[in-house]
Amino acid sequence: MTESIMSKAATMEIPINSNGDTGTLTEDDSLEQDLQQVMVSGPNLNETSIVSGGYGGTAEGIIPTSSIKGPAVHYNAEFNKRIPVTGFGSNMHHSSSSSSMTAEEMTRGVAVEKLETVKKWGYNTYKCTKQMISERFGRGSRTVDLELEAQIEVLRDTKRKYENMLRLARALTNHFYNMVQTQHALGDTFADLSQKSPELRDEFGYNAETQKLLCKNGETLLGAVNFFVSSINTLVNKTMEDTLMTIKMYENARLEFDAYRSDLEELSLGPRDAVAMARIDAAQQQYHVHKEKYERLRSDVTIKLKFLEENKVKVMHKQLLLFHNAISAYFAGNQQQLEQTLKQFNIKLRPPGADKPSWLEEQ
User: Fold this and answer.
1) Nearest of 74, 5, 6 to residue 43 by alpha carbon
2) Where are the alpha helices (DSSP H) in the chain?
3) Cα 85 from Cα 283, distance rounded (Å)
């Protein structure tokens, strides 16, 4: 029996599929496994004394794999050591199949999840767009909180006016900075001419001292005005903008809520069969979800508007007082009062040349 099997194995073609399994050779399962191991390990028959699943040798040189326990090995004459012979056994085939199936299932699950997300987004976008068009053409109703809408409109108008004030304050700062730089250069010129014009030394000296004093007071005033601009910028572009972002989320939630409310109202006016009742139940669930979201964001907007108003009054009271006192002291020529104003509001002036980057930063 063994000789007939080996003769068949030596003469027939062995079809191999894409997974490395044998085709239709069913005469002997042990021979099939042995052939698989030979194809993987590829031992040299001339250098191998014991082969697990040999091919093309004598019948006595074949050891059935069913009688081998533990990993199969062969002896390599060149290296004189035991070399494990791995093959496409049932355990490894099952493990690779399981891992490939697991990876495939994970990929499929991610794809299904993304598809569901895109589907929900498209459905929600369609409903919101439909509701927006209906409201714009006067065919759809919208939920309106008159008091809250009035507060939101006041905030937007206030932000526009504060942005204009900030733009003008920055322009004033730039113009005044240029004036201070001009006074500084003019004072240096007067001082130089005082040294080179003996007949006008005193006159040039007086003007040089005056311009230097004006330049020093101007730098002090610039410190106060810069602090004013920085505080207004924070109030407008951070505090107010954060509240407006919450308002935008609230308005989107209001639109979604009205869209699902309109959908529920339309379904309630239709037939009452089993399919329609299932759709009504699903619409009611979505309606309650978006209603809770809308009410939560409306509460957030109300709270933020309240705190923003309190913060705005507090900040502007301090900044307007600073601006008034600094401007008045400067143009009155009261250097002591100007310095006292900066101490009152804890404003520290930068030393000369602080705006210039260091040599390391310029590299």
Assistant:
1) 74
2) 2-11, 29-41, 90-136, 146-196, 201-234, 241-268, 274-331, 335-344, 359-362
3) 63
**338 with 221: CB under 8 angstroms?**
yes
The secondary structure of residue 52, as a DSSP letter, is: B
Instruction: Please give the Cα distance from 234 to 175 (Å, whole number).
Output: 22
- Cα–Cα–Cα angle for 63, 69, 70, rounded to 5 degrees: 115
CB 70 within 8 A of CB 61: no
Going from the C-alpha of 250 to that of each of 7, 240, 246, 274, 320, the distances in angstroms are 83, 15, 6, 35, 33
State the Cα–Cα distance between residues 172 and 8, nearest whole angstrom.
102
Q: Which amino acid is at 358?
A: S
Tens-place pLDDT, residues 65-119: 444 444 444 444 444 444 444 444 445 555 555 666 677 777 777 877 887 788 7
Contacts of 117 (CB under 8 A, 6+ apart): none
> CA-CA distance, 194 to 82, in Å (whole number)?
103
Q: Give me the torsion for CA of 248, 252, 253, 259, rounded to 10°.
A: 160
**Residue 26 token pair:** 């069913």
Q: Which of 322, 351, 319 is nearest to 338 (CA)?
A: 322
85 neighbors 41 (Cβ within 8 angstroms): yes
Q: Cα–Cα distance between 320 and 327 in angstroms, integer?
A: 11
DSSP 140: S
For the stretch 118-172, pLDDT in tens is 877 787 787 778 777 877 777 778 888 999 999 999 999 999 999 999 999 999 9
Interatomic CA distance for residues 54 and 226, integer angstroms: 90
- DSSP SS3 for 83: strand
Q: Which pTM value belongs to this model?
A: 0.62
Taking the CB of residue 272, how many other CB atoms lie within 10 A of it?
Answer: 8
In one-letter notation, the amino acid at residue 361 is E
The Cα 38–Cα 85 span in angstroms is: 8
Residue 73's beta-bridge partner residues? 84
Dihedral Cα 19, 24, 25, 29, nearest 10 deg: 60
Quote the tokens at residue 209: 């001292």
